[in-house]
Amino acid sequence: MLVKKWMPVTETFEEFGVAMLSLYLSSFPTIKIITFFPPGLAVDALYMIIRHNGCCRKCMILGGAIANITEAVTMAVLFLKVPPLGLSVAALIAGVSGGIGGYIAYIAINHLKVLIPNLNSINQYP
Question: What pLDDT is recorded for position 116?
Answer without folding.
Answer: 79
